Write a sequence for this structure.
């Protein structure tokens, strides 16, 4: 009799204990999850703080640098300032832009047989990209003849200095005809036709800066054109 | 299982009734006597047990019908000895008997037989009635114990407490005589603290102190005669402990007994020696409660016996204890883990608050800075990007031209440049990678042989080479078809005469990348025309 009562009591106790354990376990799991979530929150906030600090440092440094170079930026010629993305990648506007200075240089250095071909601009990568500004390069091939190598070199020198944007010589070949200036040539010069003594092929990258703040434009297919004159 | 419980009930069952002793540690809280299970006193016992239903109940047996038999068992392994004992217990004792065995030791010689003492109690009325009643008490049942066996612990305690009064401290034989209310005059003889003999003498008729004292003396002499047959020798020493009323003690004359120590104690004196508080009062005549008290103070006992029913009961208690212990461990663990988690949570909450505040402060600072940035006339990223790329491009743009200029200055007067090939490699033309090409310029030149003879021509050539090499010390300079000793293997014998013109080529290759803008004189030299170029544009 006592045994049965005791057994019943024991089972009851075991059931109650089981229920207590069953209640306690979820509470523990809940506590664990709560502190785990909080830990994630904490890590997230810390990461945000780190990000803000990084931004602050970078912005602060950039501001300082910008203060330092602002004067130089202001003094840059207009053709060396970044173009809107669309304009920088536009080949026809480049052709138009190249005509006048080339014509002027051709006359200045008495060049003849000037041919120009221009490929569609491509955007450069790596070192040639900085934040929102990048470089768009168009490969230009110039073939021309000059009276002397000095004139040809002076032309190249002037091209680098005066051509809009940046000129980066890729290759240059210069060949003398091997004929000395004679009376016939002088006659030609007097008649306004320049005799060719030196033949030159100049390949250069014509680089302009591109502002990527706006939408990028797809590259245009290469074109070949001949400047006037 | 109940050893750690401070409160204990000890129900001493004898042939003349029971004594229930309620101890809290070594302090007696209550004692009750009942002569029969149906008496009013028995009801009082039930009531007391009901009141303290959580206190474990021990049954101490002091009835006449006890049997102790020492057996030698074959030297089987310790794993199988228990089954052997069980078989022998079932064979030697009646099925209804409550029985068990206790190991005495092993024979030290020959086969090393096991020595066991088999103990049993006849489970017959009135003992069985009392036991049945005790088993139905609500208290946890802690087992059945035999008074003669458990008296060993008391004798040890008394022996220790009486050490200063003994002639022989190494007496092998101990005799305890105690006058109990429920059992009568109990004699227990130990040899080396192992039960050797027990007797009980229940006085009948006249219970005058003088008569009882005389009975004790007589019994003692008989017992000594009996143990002499068991090998007792006075030389081995005998200590005698007698617990009886003060009247009996006064009438006892034990001068005829040759003992090394005789200790006549009233129940109160015995209780004092055993450090039991309130277990006996001055006028007490019986030793039951003192024996029960000494038993109650022990955490371990000599031998526990069980009936089939009490065994099942105790299994349930054991399960309950195990469950309680497991639950306790679980909740302790849960408490510790929860405390840790809560502590962590509180600490993290604080950290999050601090971090949120720090984040707000930093965000405000950044906001202020951004406002300063917005106040700038031009987007600063545009300014920085433009200036950076401008510097890179200007450096690279003038590199080739610098070499041309430098070569023109370095060449000697009799040298004419016929062709120039500039190769900037893939400095910037590769869209996906930083250019790694090297700037190289190849000059095709012709040299008029101004020397009057070969030696002079060679000297002029050497002078030119030296000048060019010096001008382009930071570059790799290679010559082809050069007249004179610099191309001795190919040119020997071909040195032209005065009127001839020799054509040759010079290739100048930069050692390091020109576009990165960090190395070589080429950069240093390239910057000046670039700057001047910039100035010209302005």
């Amino acid at each position: 009799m006592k045994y049965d009562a005791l057994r019943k009591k024991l089972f009851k106790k075991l059931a109650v204990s089981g229920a207590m354990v069953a209640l306690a376990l979820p509470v523990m799991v809940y506590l664990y999850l709560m502190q785990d979530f909080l830990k994630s929150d904490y890590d997230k906030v810390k990461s945000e703080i780190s990000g803000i600090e990084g931004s602050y440092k970078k912005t602060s440094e950039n501001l300082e640098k910008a203060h330092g170079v602002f004067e130089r930026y202001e003094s840059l010629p207009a053709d060396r300032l970044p173009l809107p993305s669309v304009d920088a990648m536009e080949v026809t506007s480049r052709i138009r832009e190249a005509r006048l200075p080339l014509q002027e240089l051709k006359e200045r250095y008495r060049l003849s047989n000037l041919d120009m071909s221009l490929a569609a601009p491509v955007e450069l990568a790596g070192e040639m990209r900085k934040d929102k500004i990048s470089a768009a390069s168009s490969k230009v091939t110039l073939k021309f003849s000059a009276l002397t190598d000095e004139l040809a070199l002076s032309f190249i020198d002037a091209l680098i200095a005066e051509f809009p944007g940046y000129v980066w010589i890729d290759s240059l070949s210069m060949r003398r005809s091997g004929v000395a200036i004679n009376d016939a040539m002088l006659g030609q010069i007097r008649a306004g036709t320049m005799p060719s003594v030196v033949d030159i092929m100049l390949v250069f990258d014509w680089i302009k800066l591109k502002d990527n703040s706006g939408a990028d434009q797809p590259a245009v297919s290469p074109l070949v054109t001949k400047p006037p004159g | 299982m109940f050893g750690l419980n401070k409160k204990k009930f000890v129900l001493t069952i004898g042939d003349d009734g029971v004594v229930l002793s309620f101890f809290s540690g070594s302090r007696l809280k209550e004692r009750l006597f009942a002569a029969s299970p149906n008496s009013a006193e028995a009801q009082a016992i039930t009531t007391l047990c009901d009141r303290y239903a959580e206190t474990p109940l021990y049954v101490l047996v002091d009835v006449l019908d006890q049997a102790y038999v020492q057996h030698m068992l074959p030297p089987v392994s310790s794993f199988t000895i228990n089954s052997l004992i069980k078989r022998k217990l079932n064979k030697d004792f009646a099925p209804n008997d409550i029985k068990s065995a206790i190991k005495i030791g092993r024979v030290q010689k020959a086969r090393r037989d096991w020595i066991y003492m088999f103990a049993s109690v006849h489970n017959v009325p009135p003992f069985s009635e009392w036991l049945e009643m005790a088993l139905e008490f609500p208290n946890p049942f802690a087992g059945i114990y035999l008074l003669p066996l458990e008296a060993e612990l008391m004798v040890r305690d008394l022996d220790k407490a009486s050490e200063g009064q003994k002639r022989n401290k190494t007496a092998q034989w101990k005799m305890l005589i105690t006058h109990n209310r429920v059992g009568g005059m109990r004699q227990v003889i130990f040899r080396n603290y192992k039960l050797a003999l027990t007797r009980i003498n229940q006085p009948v008729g006249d219970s005058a102190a003088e008569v009882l004292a005389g009975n004790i003396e007589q019994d003692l002499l008989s017992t000594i005669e009996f143990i002499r047959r068991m090998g007792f020798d006075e030389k081995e020493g005998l200590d005698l402990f007698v617990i009886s009323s003060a009247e009996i003690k006064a009438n006892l004359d034990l001068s005829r007994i040759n003992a090394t120590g005789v200790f006549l104690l009233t129940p109160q004196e015995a209780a004092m020696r055993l450090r039991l508080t309130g277990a006996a009062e001055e006028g007490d005549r019986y030793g039951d409660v003192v024996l029960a008290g000494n038993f109650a103070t022990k955490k371990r006992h000599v031998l526990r016996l069980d009936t089939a029913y009490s065994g099942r009961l105790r299994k349930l208690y054991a399960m309950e204890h195990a469950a309680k212990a497991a639950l306790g461990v679980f909740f302790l663990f849960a408490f510790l883990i929860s405390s840790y988690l809560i502590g962590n949570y509180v600490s993290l909450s604080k950290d999050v608050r601090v971090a949120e505040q720090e984040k707000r402060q930093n965000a405000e600072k950044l906001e202020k800075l951004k406002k300063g940035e917005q106040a700038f006339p031009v987007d600063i990223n545009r300014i920085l990007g433009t200036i950076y790329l401008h510097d890179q491009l200007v450096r690279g743009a003038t590199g080739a031209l610098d070499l041309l200029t430098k070569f023109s200055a370095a060449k000697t007067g009799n040298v004419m440049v016929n062709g120039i090939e500039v190769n900037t490699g893939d400095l910037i033309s590769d869209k996906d990678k930083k250019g790694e090409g090297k700037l190289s310029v190849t000059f095709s030149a012709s040299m008029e042989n101004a020397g009057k003879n070969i030696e002079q021509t060679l000297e002029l050539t050497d002078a030119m080479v030296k000048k060019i090499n010096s001008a382009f010390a930071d570059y790799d300079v290679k010559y082809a078809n050069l007249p004179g000793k610099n191309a001795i293997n190919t040119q020997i014998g071909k040195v032209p005469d005065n009127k001839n013109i020799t054509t040759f080529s010079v290739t100048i290759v930069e050692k390091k990348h020109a576009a990165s803008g960090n190395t070589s004189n080429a950069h240093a030299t390239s910057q000046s025309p670039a700057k001047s170029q910039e100035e010209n544009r302005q």
Summary: The longest helix of chain A spans residues 2-75.
